[in-house]
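Budget justification, computational time. The allocation requested in the original proposal was used primarily to generate structure tokens for proteins on the priority list. As evidence of use, we reproduce two of the resulting records. The first is shown immediately below.
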Amino acid sequence: AARRLAMMRSLLLLAGMLSVASAFQVPAQGFPRQVCSSSALARRTARIALRSLGSAGGSPGLRIRPSLAGATMGLKEGDMLKTPETLQEMMVDAANAVSSAMGQGVKRISVEVPLPITGGTELDDWPGGIKQKYGTLRPMVGEMMKVLNFTREEMEAKNFLGYVDDAIGIWEGGDNLAVVCFPTTEVARELEQLAASGKTVVVVNSQFFIDPFSSQEGKDFDASLEKVYLLQSLNLKGPGLLPVKGVLLRTFPDPFTVARKVDGGDREVIATYDDKPERKILEELFFKDSEERDKNLSLFDRLKKIQKEASNI
């Protein structure tokens, strides 16, 4: 049994290495970016490892959920924040955050993830609009639904709320779940009905854009959502328009963690919040951090950073 367990561990490590080898990084707007599915060899290796685990006395039906969920737990200012390196990792993290929230009775859930730019032009990152974004997000949501116990048939459904051209996709399945992508305030009533039916509603990348003209139903439903997973890249400014980059991460039940990208590519935690910080708070936070951290930066280095930022626009 010990030999089988050791073999299983080696196979899982190999599967992870093969999966990571298939990943590639993204340009500035969205991270991470990769081909969502691992290589066929990695999948076969993982299946062999699962069979080995079952024969070693573990549960043959065990679902492996590699995750960074909890990566922010206990982090304090000055610690380094680890973020997902692939789309698959990110969506598994989101799924595990959803599972944790459901375990604590949360029934109205919000997930916000960055999208890799696909098919963009010099003038427009998304020339195909919301339908192009739907085509990008759909396989990502599929990775999340796998962990949430959706069947293949449930994941392959092509159902929409409202008009098809609005690309408000909906998938129902798993443990009495309804996953909805890109919902707007126009479908707030339908979302409320789903929640009233007893389903856990998981909203992915909502398009509510609440303003004074939004319907009260939309405002109420948006306010009722718990942001259980959020990953957002931040591009802010320090003194003298010095570009400062960072990230905002929340994985339920941990706090919202803000980290700044430092030399070497690491992300250093500079603050944590119980609620999602507003943009103004983040701007002030990064400005003050830059005032202290970059105070000895030479004029040449400042100009070089500004020029580099301008070339990425």
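The second record produced under the same allocation is shown here.
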Amino acid sequence: MKRTHDQMEDLEKEGEDGEEEKEEAKIGKDSEIIDTMGNKREYATMPKKTKYRMRAHVNPLNEPKFPFPLSPEWVDWSLHYPAYFGKLDNNGDRIVCNTPVHPVTYDTKPEVDEKYKNSQVRILDIGCGYGNLLLELSKEFPEKLILGMEIRDKVTEFVVDKINALRINSGYTKFTNIAAIRTNVMKLVLNYFGKGQLEKIFICFADPHFKKSNYRRRIINGPLLCEYAHLLKEGGKIYTVTDVKDLYDWNVNFLGKHALFEEVTGSEKDDDPCVKMMSEQTDEAKKVIKRGDPVWSAVFRKITGKPSTEALMEYMK
């Protein structure tokens, strides 16, 4: 029987839900959970992807119809990373991710205690999908705050619901350093982060937008690279991976000719654990590997020792 694309997608998600059940079995639904404050907790059921289904494509050129901060100072990061702001109870297990189900507002500037001033996001996963890379990065960089940004609301809700369940089931000892927000990176990424704040940016299996008329929707282009360069510290890296050779060539071309980036190759790239993570352990990577198709990855570093103004003027010539 021939199946539609949506039916095939459902079957894939059902298979992935099986992985969630294996994860639950490792913990044990009857296990006693003691949180960091010594309280007994009920087991939190892991979310199922089949319950968060939505269309795969959202037009990033549309004007956002959801809340967004006027500037980075208007984001209350304690709502997303409570453990890093002295809230040991996971903020009462309250979930926020800027969707109708888990809303957040940016109406007032939060007051941040001086001792938490350095609790800032350092790693960004653009288009985080169902969040597998966030989980792997959390283990690799347990002291870094890591954020996933995703334009699809239901997908974002799945990610934060899963993170919250994992936090609860670990007694608030794991995955407290990752979070996800529903937003439009193409229009709003500068509203969330300051200059030189980020150390790593991941762009994994982005929508290739095959039609030439839709190339302007691609998440890597000249103007956006200037924004990423503004947000990355000197020496910070952009990681990209895709199973579409044309998109790989596009990414390498734009990054390679930008005055503020240089490609990372050889053993430095090969020995970087992040390359293996994004190429093998994301949701999309696992699907590609299962199909037996190749993946193409590239890593670029923001150059050091060259004034940004001079470099950008050179780039604009």
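A brief technical remark on that second record: The first helix runs from residue 5 to 27.
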